[in-house]
Amino acid sequence: MVLMPEVWSATQAMTDLLDYRYSESITRRLFRSVADLARLAGWMSHDVGLQSTAQRYFTFALHCSKEADEVALGAEILSRMAGQMVHIGRPHDAIAVIDLARRGGTGNLSSHELSVLTTCEASAYAALGNVKEVDRTVGLAEKQFAEGRPGQERNWIPFCDRAYIEAMAGHVYQTLANHQPTMTGRAEPYIINGLRLRQANLIRSNTFDLISLAGIRVIQGEYEEASKSPRPHYKPPEPSALLAPSTGSEISETEHKTTATDPRPHVSW
Q1: What confidence tens digit (pLDDT) does each residue in 125-142 have?
Q2: Residues 6 or more apart whose Cβ sits within 8 Å of residue 42
Q3: Do 104 and 66 touch, CB atoms closer than 8 A?
């Protein structure tokens, strides 16, 4: 996360510009830009484990999106806040935030934006072990994505493509498999499709997919397979190079599960 100090600095510099008076259109554009930067700063802070800092950035980003009258951007910021809540063990709060984003964005959100909210909601239900709601929300997210039109996406959700939807569904079912081990059978095809569809240079996303796939193998008791990459020619970088510490810690945690649970000699991941 070598760019994080630069993002923090840029956010502060843009925020300082809000102290001056401009025309209404420029003011709205400025608030929109600051909201987008603060959203990014919040997510990067969350990614390296600075949860309180992330919450402050998200809250500020949400305020700026309201000043800019950017309802869809506000909903996207709320989805990031909900994602953080799932990660820190507050799935019930995440569901409430997603509901707020959906109600606040009524009539202003594209099908793809709605699918992003729904996949986040599915993650929260997976953390709670609610199979019925996971099935419902994953199905709804797929339906919403399918209803989207090319060129409909706004610039803050370029990541929402078929690979994202497939991989997110896989992550959701992999999380659910911690409660219901049979769910690994649903998770695996989604994750493999996500890896197949996504560009190889999207290192962080591909690495998370590989972590999820290894986690599935652990649950299935296939420890040797968990230590291998599903792509013979794809090698994730060292965690210290291009990945956030949280990603590196997930790799280490998966490796620990592989070796701690396997009664056989250790196989390096």
Answers
A1: 999 999 999 999 999 999
A2: 53, 54, 55, 56, 57, 58, 61, 77, 80, 81
A3: no
Domain ranges of the chain: 161-269
- Residues 205 and 171 sit within 8 Å (Cβ to Cβ): no
Residue 214 to residues 5, 151, 166: CA-CA distances in angstroms? 32, 35, 17
| H-state helical runs in 198-266 | 203-220, 223-226, 239-242, 245-261
Q: Residue 25, CB half-sphere, CA atoms under 13 Å: how many?
A: 0
Structure tokens at 177: 């498999």
As a whole number of angstroms, the distance between CA 215 and CA 177 comes to 10
Note if the pTM is more than 0.85.
no
Rounded Cα distance between 41 and 25, Å, is 24
- State the average pLDDT over residues 61-86: 95
